[in-house]
Amino acid sequence: MNRPAAPQPPRVRGACPGVAAPMATGDGYLLRLRHPIGGLGATAARVLADTARRLGNGELELTLRGNLQLRGVAAGDLDAARAALAPTGLVDAQAEREARRNVLAAPVPDLDPEAVDVLALARAVSAAIVDEPALRGLPAKVGVVVDGGGRASLRGVPADLRLDPLAGAGPRFRLAAGGTAATATPLGEVSAQHAPAAVVRALRAFLEQRAALDPPPGRLRDALGMPGSEALRLPGAEGETPGVVANADTPVRAGDWLGVAAGGAWVGAVFPFGVIDADRLERLAAWLEPYGGGLRLTPWRALLVTGVAMEAAPELQQLLRELGAVTEPADRRLAADACVGQPGCASAHIAARSEAAALVQRMPTLAASGMRLQVSACDKRCGAPPRTEAGVVEWIARPDGHAVVLRSRPGVALEWSGLAPAQARARIAALERAFQRNAGEELQTMLERIGPEAWNAAVDAALCEEDERDGD
Question: Which of 56, 130, 270, 303 has its CA 20 to 30 A from that of 367?
Fold first, then answer.
């Protein structure tokens, strides 16, 4: 539907939009619904699909924080969109309450026999944060992870604060700050009963610390080690060094949650770049409705479909494939990610998603090895992994020349800059040709063995070979 253009507010870098506080983008307004703890039912999914079709650009996006967002809403349709979304139960009337509701829960801990069911705990933590008047000044990007372990664990997802179940300790959790389960700074050990209050206490201590610092840290993770950070620790017995988080160092891989889970507890699927259009979502919801099934949202931009009988799982997988979803961990599309890019973002210099979709098909060896491709349409790098993450090839579009970056080791990167778009594509293709891993060698071992200088020489050689073939 064509709509007249309407005045839009200034775009704010680093903004954290919602439904009560939408954000203007290149294709209209963006409305972000906060992570639905415990997932969406088929009825709510159909409401979302209808709203996106009638009032947005017809697509919904899964985010890296397990949120769901609509794009392309016209200024004159904002009130109608809010009213349409209200029945989902995911809409806050007050922007300041919405901004604090940033709790990401493990998606299926109630269905995974290897996990601790933390859904009720996550809801209690979220309610405690939103209802605490002293947290009204909490920066909107400060987030909390509540993990239950198991196959669909969030142990690899970084957070400002996190609750991870302790191995062999019954319903007790480690409260930690500023990282993944393996890297976060422990703040103490707490029972499920006292965990919501402990989270609120740590966030209040952060706000008090923040008020005393100039400049104030924007995230709790940034405040660690700064003056006043000792107040983040839990007091008394629960402030003692906590026990061990099970499997904290074990990476969570797509094969752990993609496809049909044991016993048919869920069926995992990834829509490329986390985008599902309204018609596909409507079709999936209609199929699920007779089963009473639902959709659990994840920070892997994946949906875990629940409530379907085991005998119906093959039919569901076939439907998901027809809808364009990935259900197998070997699919190389899982190796590609990108921001929205053109035309959805006014800051973008390239159509990031179409570039990533084409490029990942040209890097089968890199993708199969575990290397990831990230295409960022501008220097803001929205949705990109941290610059310290290894095993990533990134194309960063810039107005004065594009860059291709190989992040081979934590904090170590090789960058080729000042490239035209065609040169950026060629450089990534050359990385694929230069890639050589010894039999049985882990990806990280190979990256550390070769090193940036050797990578640079190998890529230059691959480019020369290509030029020579073109000359013939």
Answer: 303
